[in-house]
Prior knowledge:
seven-stranded antiparallel beta sheet, single chain, PH-domain like, 43% helix
Amino acid sequence: MPSLEEIQSQISDFSNAKNIFSRKEIKALPDILWENEKVKKAAQGTYNLATGLLVATDKRLIFIDKGIFSLKVETFLYDKISSIEYSTGLMFGEIVIYASGNKAKIKNMEKNETKEMAEFVRECTQNTDANNHISTTNSDLTVELERISNLKDKGIITEEEFKTMKEKIIAKM
Length: 173
């Protein structure tokens, strides 16, 4: 798990994430983050009437509410997020996250951080979708290669037909 110093250096670019209201959530991050997980964005907001810190890492989105005697952590894995919306008003904004059939609304975020956070999360969810599609496609193509290999072994197709089919499948990878 990353140390508090490592986390503070990762979020040094986020001007508002280090304010007095977020210090206790930042101090809780070393116990919350996974091994080799890196903080990419952070913004203060309100979720389910609790003010806390919304943290986007390279692996997931986390809302942290650290009280005096309590700690509440809500995790949204990027591959489970189906969509994200944001809206801004005069001073504040809100993000709505749709994940696993649920809807989470983070309100009272600073206006300038709202769009940045939403766009970052959207990019992460699209990258996750693309990676899942690539691995599924490669898996399907591997099955297809095994299938034509079996056909060749059984004498159903010739060596030439096998090579032609194999080249077409490999070209799809």
